[in-house]
Structures are given as C-alpha cells and as structure tokens.
Amino acid sequence: MSIEEDNKARHYQLIEEVFNKKNLDLVPESFAPGFIDHMPVDELYGEKGTNFTAMLFNAFPDLHWKVEDMIAESDKLATRITMEGTFKGEYLGNAPTGNKVTLSMIIITKWQDGKEVEEWAVYDQLVLYRQLGITPLTP
Fold first, then answer.
1. Of 16, 34, 57, 40, which is closest to residue 116 (Cα–Cα)?
2. Which of 30-44, 56-70, 98-112 has the lowest average pLDDT?
3. Model confidence, pTM
4. Most-buried pick from 1, 28, 43, 129 (CB within 10 A)?
5. pLDDT class for 46, splitting at 50, 70, 90?
6. Do 118 and 33 touch, CB atoms closer than 8 A?
C-alpha cells in the first residue's frame, strides 16, 4: 500500500473511531505527541485538543462526520467532510438550542510515521453560528 493510501485509511479510521464512535482512548495512537490543530477559533495542542473534542461530543452527542472525498499527496491529505449533529450541550460558552446542524468542512492533515502531526480545519463559522442559533463572537 502506498503512503498516500495508508494515510487515507488511517484518517478514515480515525474519523470513524474517534469522532463517530467517540472513542477518545484512540487519541494517543492516532496523533503525534507534538500534534497541532489550526482551527478557526484557536490553535489546539495535546490535551487542549482532546478537551476540545470532548466538549464537542458533549455539545453534539449525536455528532456524525461523513467523509465525502479524500485526496492524498505525499504526507498530506485533504478530506471533505459533512458534519451533522444536534446542539444539546454547551458549546464555546453558549447554551444549547436543540438546533440541528449540517456543516461542510475541509480538513487538511499532515502525517508522519502513521500519526497525524498537523491539521488545518476550514469551515464557515457564520453558517455554523446561524444554524446553532447563537450570536457569533466578535473580535
């Protein structure tokens, strides 16, 4: 299997096991120790990233990520995902509204030795906030 195909398989498994099955025990074996996540709201490192993911699972207990496309080149992978869930728990300090959310995301990941070392998530925050029924944060 090529490195590109191996990275695609690992990322698909990570999405299924960690995000769809909510198995945070797999985080250490999926992410490199120095992993950094460049998100629109913050840059997440190590335990801060795990805590954010746990908060996401609490805010959207029925969270589901559907992989639409994956494109790989060398150590990088671009994945188009549709995220769906119901806003039932606190999210970034906002009380739940019970609203359903469907959000398209592009996630670019960098892989080394079978682990994710860096990630860039791109999504429309305004679309997310409107669907959640909350007021966007202002700078």
1. 34
2. 30-44
3. 0.88
4. 129
5. confident
6. no
Q: Tokens 């496309």 belong to which residue? A: 69
Q: What CA–CA distances, in Å, run from 6 to 35, 76, 78, 111? A: 19, 11, 14, 10
Domain total for the chain? 1
Within-domain flag for 65? yes
Q: Whose structure tokens read 């299997």?
A: 1
Is residue 8 a contact partner of residue 70, using CB atoms and an 8 Å limit? yes
CB atoms within 10 A of CB 105: 16
pLDDT digits (tens, 9 = 90+) for 20-33: 999 989 888 898 98
Residue 67 falls within a domain, yes or no?
Answer: yes
CA distance 25 to 109: 20
What residues make up the domain containing 72? 3-132
103 domain residue, yes or no: yes
- CATH number of the structural domain spanning residue 87: 3.10.450.50
